[in-house]
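Hello, quick one for you while I still have it in my head. Could you read through the record and tell me how the tokens relate to the sequence? No rush at all, and the record is pasted right below.
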Amino acid sequence: MAGEPSKRPSHVGALSWSEVADAVWLAAVLGEPVARQAGESAPESGPPEPKSSPEPPHPEPEPAPVADPPAPSAREPEPVTRRRHRPVVGGFARDVPGRGDRSAGNGRPPRSSTMLGGPDILRALRPLKQLRPSSREDDVQLDEELTAEQAVQDGLWLPVLKPVTTTRVLDLTVVVDAGSSMALWQPEVRSFLKLVQQLGAFRTVRIRYLETETRATDGSLAPVLRGGTPDAPQHSVAELLDWYGDRLMLVLTDGVGEAWRRDLVSPLLAQWSGGMPVALVHLLPQHLWKKAGIPLHRALLTSPGPFRPNRRYGFDLPDVWMTMADPEKAVNGAVPVPVLELGGRWFSWWVRLISRSVTEAVPGTVLLARDQPMPETGDDDEPVMTPTAQERVRRFLGAATPPAFRLATLLAAVPVSLPIARFVRAELVPEADTSHLAEVFTSGLLGPQTDRPDLTGDDAVFEFPASVREALLTTGRRSETVQVVIAAGERFGEQHPVLLRIADALADPDRAALPEEGADVTLERVVMRALSGPYAWRAERLHEWERELAVAAEESGDAGEDEDGVGPPATVEPEVADERLVANVREEAATSLRRVRRITTDAPVIWGAVPARNPEFVGRRDLLDRLGASLESADSAILHGPGGLGKTQLAVEYIYRRLRNHDLVWWVSATQESQIRASLMELARQLRLPGADETVAAVPAVLAALRAGQPYRRWLIVFDAADDPEFLLPFLPVGGPGRILVTARDAASGTFPAEPIEVDRFSRAESIDLLRRRDGTVTMADAEALAEKLGDLPIALAQAAAWRAETGMPVADYTRLLDEKMAELHTLSPQQTDYEISVTAAWNVSFDGLSTRNPAAHQLLQVCAFFAAEPVSRSLFAGVRGVSIAPELDTAMRDPVLLDRALREINRCRLAKLDHRSGTLLLHRLAQLVLRAMMTDETRTRMQHGAHLLLGNLDPNDPEAARQWPQYQMVLPHLRHAELIDCDDPWVRRLVLNLMKFLYFSGDHVGALTLSEEVVAAWTERYGAEDPQTLAASEQLGFVLWVLGRYEASSEVSRRTLRLYRRTFGPESEQALGAEVLVATGLKSSGDFFAARDLNRQTYEKVRSLFGDDDPTALEAAHDLVVSLLLAGDYEQARWLSEDTYERRSESLGYDNWKTILTLNIMIICRRELGDYSWARIEQEKVLERVRGLFGSGTDGVIRRDLHLAVAQRKDGYHEAALTLSGSALERFRLKYGSDHPNAMACALAHSIDLRNAGELTASLKLGEQALSLYRGSLGDRHPHTLAAEADIGVTLRLLGDPAISLARDERALSGLRDRLGPAHPHVLACAINTANDWFALGDVQRSLRMNTDTLARLRRALPENHPTTLAARLNRALDLERLGRFREALSQHRDVLVVADRMLRPGHPAITAAENAVRAECDIDPMPL
């Protein structure tokens, strides 16, 4: 790539004696290890080598008397004696290598501590070893022979000197960045300094240190140069200047300090570059340079001669127009400083440049140094949304290399210091090097310990915020978490005792002592929670202990403010949605805010995406006055009229003229509902409203805030380009203290809450003013004639003025072309109005001229004519391969220079709007219509197909991954405008299929259904029902119908698809087997759980035999079999298969794959139904955080996880939390899908149970009856889920004091459940327990006892003896015995129940309290997910 020295093979020819000497010296140097990194042990002595001829002794070279680099601080003490640990609970731990066996941990030999790439660097610098005759009499050197002879004679080793005839030509100065982050690079810096000192190529090697973090007395950063040691006195920058042309300078840095980001080092580099060649040696690898603070540029460099200073270099920046806002100003007076990696080929490139071994321009990467720092462009007042821990980790995961991410997940489990980090890298991630550690330390995920700023270098301790630790540990392996804790504890346990305490807790989580320090508690709590399983209880204990310490600290006045320190654990941070539309609105709002603040100090506090003011705006005074009056009197107005009359420009001008009148101005692009919702969601975030991160809650929240005038009363909301004003009604904050402005093509109905203002053509005076403003040489007569010709239409006049200004065409010539175009249009389309002809003719003149001036630009616009009238990303056309549309456009799409030239040409001619900041092109809707009308049928077909291919080229083919959703969101607006569904290209058809899946995964189920139905109908007609991609669309349609609860339609579509798959591909094809899974899903929906289980098992066995256990189709079949087993009541087998499937999916699909998370979720439900309530709750919380981090808070996947967590909280006895969460989930389900959606019905039933537990029996009964009615309407009276809902209502009725009605409902439910599920299903037995309670309440205790005895016998065969449902039957039976007077038997059984309950349920569980008080147990039945 440009800017990177090319890789050239090294050729070794005949060596001179001096080169042989260099090689011998190099071998000696490289064989001598430099200072060993912390965490690396000395190589152990092996068995004695067989005797061979002895080698001559090698005297150790004496180091040159040059100052050392910064001395490290006191290092970690020597390793402690290995502690013997007990086995770790849960089986996570693996063998951890000890210090004496370096290869045991990774199967590799010990890492060499010599500098990587040292021989290559030495070879690259060798050409600098130049000699010249000595002109100084005092130039002497050691005479080795005479010195030896004199020593033999005198017995004294006194040096004997002799004159030198030649001397080295060049001197070298190495300036080392002494910033705190450079401590990580100490071994590399030390090795490099040693290499250049002993190279022998330079007359002198001078070392200086540059403190980049020193602050002046006023607190500002002021870099300071010091001598050969970090604590040396301050030196003048000018002392390094060289005016004789024989000194070189290398500056070593990682570039991450604030001084580099703020360009404060630039003046020093510029000053040094005036007298010598200077290069910057960047210690980070090139792919990380953008993460550092140094602004770098690609350049073409030329040197006027050997060893000339940088200021005399010639340079050209080919991409400067793309990377700088004002290229001429930025480049003026700048000095290019080459930037190198610490590698041989980079130094070779630099040596060839400065020695002028090449005379042509060479590509490279440079820093532009200036005499004064560049002013900062950021806006401190710009609102910035702080990313959450999950978002920060997700961003790091997306950008980090695999070794760096693995290092981060390991370091998150231990205290972090440089020695520990190096140890973890060497022992557990041997493939990593210092650059990977640098990725972690510069990621922003951790920082220095705030309470110990005095610790630096290897003594410094770094901190991950607790929320970041949790997010990282959820992405790592639990076995590796245990491994790193134990390994680090054995090596650094004495310095960090928390590691030893965590290791003890791993061995015995129940009896290990709790830590005393708040930070230690937090670290151990995070680790225990990440490990979960047998450590979940300890995590909960630590959680409570953490709270107690925080309360104690607060009472003593020592409570800290750090949210990640000691204190109550923070709630789950709201996740910022990663939706492209919302991100676009945010970026546009920020850009617009910066723009308005540059021109005025009266900018409103909240300012969103208002377009730039048109500097050529003319006239419209009457309309502006009418608009102002309407907004003052009626609080709302609608500007309406045909396209091209300037409605948007009028709204923009009004805003800029009334800036002082508003505290909040928000611009909403109203062409599509998705854009409106995205814009209002971003406004909710700007206002920091509750629920702003959830799409379903953000819009109501922001409308309510605007109506209430909180926090701003003087607001103005603009809805621009609404095709149908009536469509806006749900989004208008009518009744608030602010103003609403709408622009639309058509007038609204009389009931629309806005005063209509019609926008018409320009007056003649306004037309003339516009034409003469662009070109003052136009006469009044010519301007009036042209205005008359164009009918005073603003858009046509603006286009004519822009084209004439760009081309210089005389008015007469332009008028002649206009007449020709109008005549053509009258002939071709005699029905067109004068308005349409004027606009079309003006555009046609410009388009025809562009086709001659730049055919590629014209063809690009022709393609854009088939996109939606939305900003189109430049990336759509950049670097396109395998797509051929038209010769000139094809060439431009492969050449960035030609593409940018075409875009500039379009922008200059005002044919489309080019936004350089966002890299988008916007073509007006009228221009699109004109372009399409101008094309021949053949051209129209070709350009439309080109639009299809370009959109298909964007398909990442991964609609399940949230990180790819912005790519699909980019395509979605163009789906119907480009008529993608009608394209025959298979890759474009694959894109359409993926868009259907994207809509489902992103939560737009209704949109997914609409598109699926449309695609299936169109493709069946065009390609036939047996076409493979038609069948794939049909399969997706069946699935979406099922998701939306339309089970009969789904089953019909799925069965038809299965028949066609079997006929087309065969009964054992992958497609047919996948369709079988969907058919089984239909059986579950109809309530035939056992038939579904049998079909799932049959499919699973066939897939395993055909494709193997780890094949994705086999894993899909296994997951569906787990669901069927759960529904059929076989919880244990479901648990075993779910754990196996989860492990396999994690390995094959990845930890964060959506299907992997689905299997994890169903595995947690299996454990929950087996009675492991606390484990299920804790794991469900982690899954919820994970799903929220991956997909955002507003998706249905998050709401479903909320429902599952609410059920787990209720089962674990956290009734209040369950009530709150289930209520929230129910509200969001209803907002998103309505009350009759399957998820909404299940959530309503769960919330009714939570209301019952809270004592709100009447509300519980009302909601339960609503849910039952919906279940009957959706699934039928005899569906098991309907019957379960009726059984839950029976419990509420009995608690309301009506056991007779309760008995009737329970017996009806029990009879139905037995018929559908059999007598031994857990739900049947739970219903039987409730029915026995009815008989007890009615006084028939004997019947209750018989039922409980029979139920208990069946439960012991179906569920474990200690299962909570079994305990419920045992408790109720004991209470039956007590009522019947069999006290001894009752007391014994009651005592046994309490003992088991104490062991099975968490301390303080309400069920334990109820059992102790002899309260009969009730059984809730939660329908399993279908």
